[in-house]
Amino acid sequence: MSTHTFQIVRHGSQEYRETVALRDSVLRRPLGLHFTPEQLAAESGDIHLACYDGDALVACLILTPVDARTVKMRQVAVAQERQAQGVGRALVERSEHVAREHGFAEVVLNARLNVVPFYERLGYECVGGVFEEVTIPHRAMRKTLA
Ligand SMILES: CC(C)(COP(=O)(O)OP(=O)(O)OC[C@H]1O[C@@H](n2cnc3c(N)ncnc32)[C@H](O)[C@@H]1OP(=O)(O)O)[C@@H](O)C(=O)NCCC(=O)NCCS
After folding, report:
1. Beta strands 125-133; 106-112: pairing state
2. How far is the CA of 128 from the centre of ligand 1 (A)?
3. Ligand 1 pocket check: which of 72, 115, 116 to mutate, most ligand atoms within 8 Å of Cβ?
4. Residues 11, 43 contacting (CB under 8 angstroms)
5. Ligand 1 mean position to 83 CA, how many Å?
6. Cα-based distances in Å from 56 to 18, 21, 52, 117
7. Domains along the chain with CATH numbers
8. What is the DSSP string of 89-123?
9. How does pLDDT run across 68-113, given as a tens digit for each residue?
């Protein structure tokens, strides 16, 4: 992981468009879904965190403020060929640092059911039962930031 760097990218920038392409390929197209212009416009106030290996984008996520205390982690995506190599862990840990820097004390998220163990390893706990989102089962999770 030593060669990886992290960057907050500006909504609408070329770097942002690259994160949208990565999210589309990892999170949406496999479900037969795609982002609408309205969905992308609605995330203009969010924090977009990107992870690079050299110049290559390898992972990204979004932090959406919920209120003064809480931020929602969304759209966590690691490029398929880079998965299971510690990139997701490093990205989530960096995002928690970013969230703290922005004054947030808690992270919430909706995890795909098969990914719940990934977040549990990172200290997140389930709250409530299973529900459906983007056609697949999810569970709500949360973590208080140290
Ligand atoms: C889920 C995802 C973000 C995880 O990132 P990753 O880089 O592959 O995961 P890491 O290599 O950092 O794994 C960190 C730890 O979680 C574990 N882990 C990762 N994915 C897991 C899974 N689906 N089930 C159980 N454990 C998992 C790893 O074994 C590792 O454990 P360790 O610390 O004991 O070695 C990534 O695989 C991905 O983008 N998947 C497709 C999109 C997706 O499902 N996004 C999440 C939507 S909620």
Report:
1. unpaired
2. 22
3. 115
4. yes
5. 7
6. 10, 13, 5, 27
7. 4-144 (3.40.630.30)
8. HHHHHHHHHHHHHTT--EEEEEEEGGGHHHHHHTT
9. 999 999 999 999 999 999 999 999 999 999 999 999 999 999 999 9
Question: pLDDT tens, 17-60?
Answer: 999 999 999 999 999 999 999 999 999 999 999 999 999 999 99
Token digits for 33? 């879904």
* Model pTM score: 0.96
Q: Cα dist. 116→72, 124, 146 in Å?
A: 16, 9, 21
CA of 77 relative to ligand 1 center, distance in Å: 10
Residues whose beta carbon lies within 6 Å of some atom of ligand 1: 26-27, 76-78, 83-89, 111-112, 114-115, 117-118, 121
Structure tokens at 137: 């089962």
- The closest alpha carbon to 59, from 87, 81, 89, belongs to 87
**What's the whole-number average pLDDT of the chain?**
96
Q: How far apart are alpha carbons 61 and 88 in whole angstroms? A: 10
